[in-house]
Amino acid sequence: MTGAPGAPPRVLTVAGSDSGGGAGIQADLKTMLALGVHGMSVVTAVTAQNSLGVQGAWELPVEAVRAQYRSVVDDIGVEAVKTGMLASAELVETVAELLAATDAPVVVDPVGVSKHGDPLLAATALDSVRERLLPTATVATPNLDEVAQLTGVRVESEAGMREAAQAVLAYGPRWVVIKGGHLSGDAVDLLSDGSEEHWLRAPRYDNRHTHGTGCTLASAIAVRLAQGLTVPEAVAAAKEYVTGAIAAGFALGGGIGPVDHGWALTRGGPAV
């Protein structure tokens, strides 16, 4: 299905709600607006969450998730889909089934834990992520903790990122971005499809307010794919956007504040 003439590209996020507004569905929709597409959402879970952590999480019934997805895709259509928090094996498998039948690029952010270390994916769902969800991905975007959770590969330095990429690619995504944000030194990510590699580097800003970086990067990749960029182009553009958002991150509450999703609109940068 194509959009109406003059309508912006349509991007769908399938993820959990962050009541604090820094990550999850809220971060995804802010990113989509900032980068010039029409964002739509399928809420998979509701969290009680703030700058200090996650105080509670409640997943939605599978029927509610499926109904939201079908409602959007069957009428409005999508030009890219991004997934985030899916919580349970049942939700992972349901979403994977829906994605497999959708003709659009898919960006899978295999969310395992929050920025504060709170678990957001049941241990029993890991096999479903590996065997059902990752094979649907045009691009998968795990951080180093999620790489270890999914593959057992523990990355201690840049030298280990290539092994991590191969381990994730073995589960079937076309491309993987290994996010090296937890390493020291420059903020370096590795994009690979198993034969082609792109190393993306950016300065590491001395700013602790980085809540929502993973959601933001994955959403920005989905946006750029919907706008017609190739995967390497989309990831490079998304990296530039999220780097600016990190640099502009601000304090909120008593803990870790969010990145600034609107920095490109208010301070100049790679907007539409």
TrEMBL record:
Output the CDD domains linked to this UniProt entry.
HMPP_kinase
Per the UniProt record, one Pfam family is Phos_pyr_kin
* An MF annotation (GO) of this entry: phosphomethylpyrimidine kinase activity
Q: What is its EC number?
A: 2.7.1.49, 2.7.4.7
* This protein's pathway: Cofactor biosynthesis; thiamine diphosphate biosynthesis; 4-amino-2-methyl-5-diphosphomethylpyrimidine from 5-amino-1-(5-phospho-D-ribosyl)imidazole: step 3/3
Positions of the Pyridoxamine kinase/Phosphomethylpyrimidine kinase domain: 18-260
Which reaction does this enzyme catalyse, per its entry?
Answer: 4-amino-5-hydroxymethyl-2-methylpyrimidine + ATP = 4-amino-2-methyl-5-(phosphooxymethyl)pyrimidine + ADP + H(+); 4-amino-2-methyl-5-(phosphooxymethyl)pyrimidine + ATP = 4-amino-2-methyl-5-(diphosphooxymethyl)pyrimidine + ADP
Q: Which UniProt keywords apply?
A: Kinase, Thiamine biosynthesis, Transferase
The record, for InterPro entries, names: HMP/HMP-P_kinase_dom (IPR004399), PM/HMP-P_kinase-1 (IPR013749), Ribokinase-like (IPR029056)
Q: Which PANTHER family match?
A: HYDROXYMETHYLPYRIMIDINE_PHOSPHOMETHYLPYRIMIDINE KINASE THI20-RELATED, PHOSPHOMETHYLPYRIMIDINE KINASE
Q: What does this protein do?
A: Catalyzes the phosphorylation of hydroxymethylpyrimidine phosphate (HMP-P) to HMP-PP, and of HMP to HMP-P.
This chain's protein is named Bifunctional hydroxymethylpyrimidine kinase/phosphomethylpyrimidine kinase
What is the native source organism of this protein? Streptomyces ossamyceticus
